[in-house]
Amino acid sequence: MDVAPGGGLLVAGTTSDAGKSVLVTGLCRWLARRGVRVAPFKAQNMSLNSYVTADGAEIGRAQAVQAAACGLEPTADMNPILLKPGSDRRSQVVVRGRPVADVDALEYGARRDELRAIAVESYRRLADEFDVVICEGAGSPAEINLRAGDIANMGLARAVGLPVIIVGDIDRGGVFAHLYGTVALLDAADQAHISGFIVNKFRGARELLAPGLDMIEGLTGRRVYGVVPWLDGLWMDVEDSLSLDNRPANTGSAAADGALRVAVVRYPRISNFTDVDALAAEPGVTVGFVTSPAACADADLLVLPGSRATVHDLAWLRDTGIADLVVRRTGPVLGICGGYQMLARTITDHVESGAGTVPGLGLLPADVAFAREKTLGRPAGEGYGHPVRAYEIHHGVVTRDGGEPFLDGCRVGNVWGTTWHGALENDGFRRAFLGEVARAAGREFRGDPTLSFAGLREARLDALGDLVERNVDTGALISLIGSGPTPGLRTLPPGESGASGPAGPC
Questions:
Q1: Nearest-CA neighbor of 198 among 483, 474, 472?
Q2: 152 and 29 in one domain?
Q3: Staple 429 to which of 11, 63, 313, 386, CB 3.0 to 4.6 Å?
């Protein structure tokens, strides 16, 4: 496929979780399969699910998966700015893979010019190296109260001259109002970059939708590039815990077939909960996210996952009564990263929460001290006789003085702890660990020795590429990528007043 080098496209959305990440991943896979040198990009990401690149940079996990769709090792340029909320008001700012500050919204706003320049520089490096860069927006470009400081949506589009496709989630309802309103709320210069729409998550008869598609094209002067159907189970590695509300359960009935029941505690600042995706992929295992002691009670394995606010989430565990259940529990418990830290005797934190020394749950012979420097790495080791490759992202440094070694952490009885994320994606290790859990829980686990989690992810990436190829006018998108924003587009009121955006270029 002939694509002129240096082309790009920004996929924006009418709302969060409209399907931007999925469509960018599908576009990347579709282009890569056709020999196009393509790379993903998200200027600014707000997510507690992150990943570590080969050179030790932290980026959003969705961009790491999008890089895999392109057949690439991810780099910091693919997500130069990552925000990791630690509370409702403050976030850690990660720039080119390294944490630089914890800020509130006003402090972040004071850095916007510096951060915009960093984002544009990263985009241009990718554009120089690859034929096409497929960019993912953040939230919605119609957040007009935030437009002046925007660097991920129209701010990026205007800075580097990108055409923009708006994705609308029809499953939420009101998709035509969302599409029209998103365009109309922007000023004329922003509107000039919006070339068309994709309707996502459609269920039903396409012929019933057709009149609405014709009307939105007539009202806006912009074409609909495709209607993508609703398909369950195609996405993993979601960006934030809001997506868990729509997360499908894996197949199998615990009551009917004796499947292992895994409960994952969903505390307020849960992070890197994608660790359990590999468990959910196993036949004979059911995985659910829980917020109460009652929901944990009959689990064969209770998982305390990562946390962006370990001390605060530990306090939440105590307030909900889940902490008492964990301490009394005789069945298997697995703590990963922040969850491992909660299982220790003490946590000393003058960095993340400023709480000083607080008692942990005391189930593992370890103590935690938070360091100002974040540990970022891609460790490798062995567990249950199987090779394990993982990644780690933490301020808390665990010092242990007992227990049976388990990866980098330890085990005491039916309680396991490790700082390593992604360990369960290693097939042999995962099945051996689940075998241990099953024996401890008095259940049976056979597993599927042919299941490859990496292979499953590749199959899902291919399915996303197929989804794009079958339901999007890819020829028209290629032309748009090559030619840039569509000339002569209609300006919708009230955008013609220019009131919603700044006068500058981005």
A1: 472
A2: yes
A3: 386
* Per-residue confidence (pLDDT) for residue 497, from 0 to 100: 41
d(CA 116, CA 109): 11
Q: What tens digit of pLDDT does each residue of 93-140 get?
A: 999 999 998 888 778 778 888 999 999 999 999 999 999 999 999 999
Q: pLDDT digit string (tens) for 207-224? A: 999 999 999 999 999 999
pLDDT given for residue 5 in this prediction: 61
How far out from the chain centre does Cα 452 lie? 21
For residue 278 the two structure tokens come to: 């590999």
Q: What is the pTM of this model?
A: 0.91
The answer to whether position 245 is within a domain reads no
What's the confidence (pLDDT) of residue 236? 60
Intervals of the chain under pLDDT 50: 241-242, 248-256, 496-506
Answer yes or no: 421 catalytic.
yes
Strand partners, 166: 12, 197
Catalytic residue, chosen from 178, 312, 394, 421, is 421
Q: Is residue 175 part of a domain?
A: yes
CATH number, domain at 369?
A: 3.40.50.880
Domain, as residue range, for 315: 259-443
Residue 468: which of 479, 458, 476, 456 has the closest Cα?
476
Classify residue 416: in a domain, yes or no.
yes
> Which 3 state secondary structure label does DSSP give 123?
helix
pLDDT of residue 242: 46
CA angle 478, 484, 488 (to 5 degrees): 115
Angstrom distance (rounded) from CA 45 to CA 391: 20
Please provide the DSSP assignment of 61-114 as one string. Answer: HHHHHHHHHTT----GGGS-EEEEESSSS-EEEEETTEEEEEE-HHHHHHTHHH
For residue 250, what pLDDT is reported? 45
Active site residue 28: no
pLDDT at 503: 36
- Burial of residue 417 (number of CB atoms within 10 Å: 0-12, 13-18, 19+): buried
Same domain, 67 and 104: yes
Residue among 296, 337, 410, 506 flagged as catalytic: 337
Residue 257's pLDDT is what? Answer: 59
pLDDT at residue number 243: 53
Q: Cis bond leading into 485, ω under 30°? A: no
What is the total count of domains within the chain?
A: 2
For residues 234 and 457, give the distance between their C-alpha atoms in angstroms, rounded to a whole number: 9
CA torsion through residues 317, 320, 324, 326, sign: negative
Any domain includes 111: yes
- 304 and 431 belong to one structural domain: yes
* 280 shares a domain with 359: yes
Is the domain of 74 the same as that of 179? yes
